[in-house]
Amino acid sequence: MTNEAIILAGLAGVLFSAAPIVFAVIGETISERAGVINLSMNGTILLSAMGGFAVSLASGSLILGFVAGAAIGALVALVVAFASITLKQSQVAVGFVLTLLCRDLSYFLGNPIMGQTGPRLPQLVLPGLAQIPILGPLFFQQDIMTYLSFAVVILAWIFIFKTKAGLELRGIGEKPAAAYVRGSKVEGLRYLYVAVGGALAGLAGPMYSLSVKAGWKGTISGLDGIGWIALAITIFGGWNPFRAAMGAWLFAFLQWLGLVLQPSLPGIPSQVLQVAPFPLMILTLLLVNLGNAEWVERSLARLPEKARKRAAKILRAMRATPPAALGTPFEKD
Amino acid sequence: MSHNRPTRLAFDVGGVVLAFVLTTLVLVAAKAPPLQAFYNILLGAAGNWDVAANVIVSWVPLVLATSGLLITFTVGLWNIGIEGQIILGGVFSTWALRTFQNSSLDPALILAIAVVAGMAGGALWAMLAGALKTFGGVNEIFGGLGLNFVATAINLWLIFGPWKRPGVASMSGTLPFDPKLWLPTLTPESRLAPASVVIAIVAIVAVFALVQGTYFGLRLKAVGRNPKAAYVLGVKTWQHMMAAFALCGLFAGLAGSMQVLAVYHRLIPSISSGYGYLGLMVAMLVNYSVPLAAPVALFFAALNVGSIQLPIVLKLDSSLAGVLQGSLVLLVLLTKGAKERLLGKAAK
What we know:
The complex is a heterodimer of chains A (333) and B (348). With 333 residues, chain A is an all-alpha fold. Chain A is 71% helix and 0% strand.
């Protein structure tokens, strides 16, 4: 293989390994657009990875595995919805408990199937398209879920910003009272979108256990932590599907870069390079949030007109403002 | 409508009962004998003096983490970054021991320096999350989570890099310290250090006094209830949040410090052992009440220690403890919500 081919294969691998994160981030984006933080992400991914693998193993069907993953994700999300929307409990508290509960459930229930070899999602080379130089090996020699990860980004963007239902979705997350007055069934819709978001995130699990990191290996599956990343990337993505997907790809790219650079950085242990993207994620979180901080606005006001406009422009480009009603319950009266 | 005490109590008890029912269902689903599993946990936590002592060993960091979290919860903060603060406590304590172990200082003094260093490390890391929130507008949950990963990276880097064992670095951690730098234990074989238990008790009592008996605690509560109103009334909001972060960090750092000085006698990759997250669960389960935190933490510690034998005796994964803990917190939250919904907010 030439150097160019090696790099192309590496970048194709980045898109492949980012695909589950893309699904999780888009799912969380939809849920948060509706005003509900689903903090259970890390547990959801682990439980749906184990559940999807177990179902596939027992039935021999890949499709059933993915269906099971989505169902688990939707079910966990519905618990968050019920506790926060109907029972008015803290979304963060319920989500956090579910994170740990689902993680331990996956380890406990997955114990008997640990280390077994199950079905694995095959590569699906798209005839014709795969022969295009550069783009072919990069985009068109993936598996079906990776193709769908591209599609889900585009579809989510169109849905959120270009459809009437998407407008309503944004409405119940931004100004639920106003949406209610205009006739939106705020609570029912929140249930719906939290479940849909949970189902999308639930697909990320089987994408790992049936493809990216095939199998179930309990605590050493290497999946613990990915859900937290997905939550951080959702913020980085500013609740916009395209920006969110960019975040997922950037994260996977940085992890790949860590692997590639390792031989030339012998002083740094591999365990450190694997977590190296995290400080960078914090830095980006800081950058996208900086525009929201009060002292930044105050010090901007002191700058001369021209510099102020330029600085404000840069900050606005990076800035991500959460849906106004995110995390708060909706009271009809 | 009966808003009487028995009805309300029925909801609280109902939550706990439902949690055991849920866990039993999980056991049945795993084709395991539920009664035998619960009995084995009991045996594993209270069957003899050795395991009972191990429960106390596990209670110390848990109650220290919970103590700190009760302060951040009082001011309305979700200090999820506590895991990282525990890790930094362990790292700073290890650093202090490494620095002074070959000096002529008295071992007791070196240990004291290590404890203070650990507390400083935890506080530093907590204030970093506080600074990200105050000056960067980064929500403490996401800043804290990110800092947890960074703390893990720092810890691993030290264990596999500058502080690695002579010869080959390994997941078993740094080289153990000289026994004269171990916190004295009850008996030579025991892992139970009376000093660490005293520290944990002092911590929870101090938090109780702070929250219930001082003006500072009252101001923390005011900020927690309604930051805007508190600000208008002259309470310096972000300064109090920062102080709460720092205080929580002190306790978290102390927990990490105790793990190094009293339990492992070295720095290991999983030095925080999830005690920070478990502390969050304890705080939620007791509905942020300080007096209840200590006994519930003891119960959670007993579940953790009691389930260690499950893989050997019943071929069950020890994560059963986590399943029961998670079910308890989840169902207590849900029944609390149901109680408020059915009996009205006054039932709180």
